[in-house]
Design goal:
Blueprint lengths: L2 H10 L7 H10 L6 E7 L18 H9 L1 E3 L2 E2 L5 H10 L3 H4 L8 E2 L5 E2 L14 H5 L5 E5 L18 E3 L28 H15 L5 E6 L11 H10 L9 H23 L6 E7 L22 H4 E2 L1 E4 L8 E3 L3 E2 L3 H8 L16 H5 L9 E5 L8 E6 L2 E6 L5 E5 L15 H18 L5 E2 L13 E2 L3
Parallel strand pairs: 1-8, 1-9, 2-12, 3-13, 6-7, 6-8
Antiparallel strand pairs: 2-11, 3-10, 4-19, 5-18, 9-11, 14-15, 15-16, 16-17
Helix pairs in contact: 3-9, 7-9, 8-9
Length: 471
């Protein structure tokens, strides 16, 4: 089946995503206009980079207000410690291991490392059903405005069900945060214009143009990813404060966070202005932990590119007017695969079980009417980056990390040791073995690709600087 036929059948509801009867029943049960969805995805933002998550340096009044109007999750996770896989998990509801999209595109290449990384997929396959495609049969119009990083020209948002794509292509960071951006799909604007502001401008245009329709706005900012570039006035503001804080004292980074916060404020104001805020669900999240060389994730350990909490635990906020109790918090562990089934349930739709979504709907948590039944959360990262190839599992308060080079296990109790400073693997070998088996069973169940012994392994050269892999 070619792509055009696939989309046509999906739109008609004949592919199996939604049967005609299911769709009709959902439409009949919907009371009033359908919900709109706005999804803010920030790049490389650490959980502790927001005021509502404890930062005393970075100022995020608009995001803090959003948290006060909705639910703030304390144990919200990205499905991967780097960007592309997490983005794919959000859009499809599937674990990166199942998608075989397990690293940032195009990843690093370490030709002399002990292990050879698997032949993974450097794009989001057309066969996967995205949120934009899943919502389309219900009449939703969708836009992806900002970073995509899920494949080249044949795999951009417009090839994955989105009606509008502004600035989304293969790249993972902008050549510049100031105009001219040199990003396809973003024509030159005004000299000195800032990218976060421009993406917000485009988002406001989309909302205005579709205010009378149900819409899905996916707004994945390029910020706060490197290069560190910010507006002069905001940078000077933080320089003038001169407030030292271990790991969170970079004025430029603080200014980039502030620009993201401004974006949230402007979008929320537009929803209010148009009178559609009460039927718009707003999500806020980051794709992985903060880069440890740029910001501090403390008390979480380490940062982006690692399987420690600082690499995968994210800010996670949901505002659902009239449903979510304002200012509420939730400590139930959730993961980025959960957005797909959550949004579909909110829209009165159901995914086809044949699509095998791994996520679970968080609607019971948001409504505070129940919990979700899940044994564990899993991570699979068979690549060399800041960390060594490995995997992890969180089961209750227990977390196990396994490294593939030598089979080393690390075991932590997150309730007692959030900072992962006390490795209990040697003291509790039975618990470590139990979790390791669960992790291995899960890998087999999802068809996870594993690294293999590298015939070109050179111990002396293995620790050299990585190079970018070819696309």
């Amino acid at each position: 089946m070619n792509r055009r036929t696939f989309l046509r059948r999906a739109t008609l509801g004949s592919l199996g995503l939604f049967s005609a009867s299911r769709f009709a029943k959902a439409a009949e049960s919907a009371s009033g206009p359908r919900l709109n969805f706005v999804f803010f995805l920030i790049d490389d933002l650490g959980q502790r980079d927001l005021g509502c998550y404890g930062s005393t340096v970075y100022e995020t009044p608009h995001i803090d207000k959003l948290a006060s109007q909705g639910m703030r999750f304390t144990d919200g996770y990205a499905a991967c410690p780097v960007c592309s896989p997490t983005r794919a998990s959000i859009l499809t509801g599937k674990y990166p291991a199942r998608l075989h999209l397990t690293d940032w595109i195009a990843g690093h290449k370490r030709p002399n490392a002990k292990l050879a990384v698997p032949d993974w997929t450097m794009y989001l396959r057309h066969e996967e059903v995205t949120l934009a495609e899943a919502l389309k049969p219900a009449g939703y119009v969708s836009a992806s405005i900002g970073k995509w990083h899920l494949g080249g020209p044949d795999y951009r948002p417009e090839a994955q069900g989105f009606d509008l794509n502004v600035g989304g292509d293969h790249r993972g960071q902008p050549p510049s945060y100031f105009d001219p951006y040199k990003i396809p799909g973003i024509p030159d604007g005004k000299p000195g214009e800032y990218l976060s502001d421009r993406l917000t401008d485009e988002a406001l245009k989309f909302i205005e143009a579709n205010k009378s329709k149900p819409f899905f706005l996916y707004l994945p900012h390029y910020a706060v990813h490197t290069p560190l570039q910010a507006k002069k006035d905001l940078t000077e503001k933080y320089l003038a404060k001169g407030r030292p804080a271990k790991g969170q004292n970079g004025a430029t980074y603080a200014a980039m966070v502030a620009s993201v916060d401004e974006s949230v404020g402007r979008v929320m104001a537009k929803l209010d202005e148009l009178g559609i805020a009460d039927r718009t669900v707003v999500f806020f999240m980051s794709d992985n932990g903060g880069l440890a060389s740029v910001t501090s994730n403390a008390p979480l350990r380490a940062g982006k590119g690692t399987l420690y909490e600082g690499g995968v635990r994210e800010p996670w906020i949901v505002k659902w007017p009239g449903v979510v109790k304002p200012g509420s918090t939730c400590s139930v562990p959730v993961i980025s695969t959960d957005f797909f089934p959550t949004i579909l349930e909110m829209a009165g739709l159901k995914a086809d079980p044949k699509q095998a979504p791994d996520g679970l709907s968080t609607v019971p948590l948001l409504k505070q009417t129940g919990t979700i039944e899940r044994e564990a959360l899993y991570w699979h990262y068979p690549h060399y980056h800041i960390t060594l190839p490995g995997g992890a599992i969180r089961c209750g308060d227990w977390k196990l990390i396994e490294y593939f080079e030598d089979g080393k296990l690390e075991l932590y109790n997150l309730k007692d040791d959030l900072s992962e400073t006390i490795d209990l693997a040697a003291k509790m070998p039975e618990k470590a073995a139990e979790l390791r088996k669960k992790l291995d069973d899960w890998r087999k169940a999802v068809g996870a690709q594993m690294p293999t012994p590298n015939p070109n392994y050179d111990q002396k050269r293995a620790s050299g600087a990585p190079t970018k892999a070819k696309k």
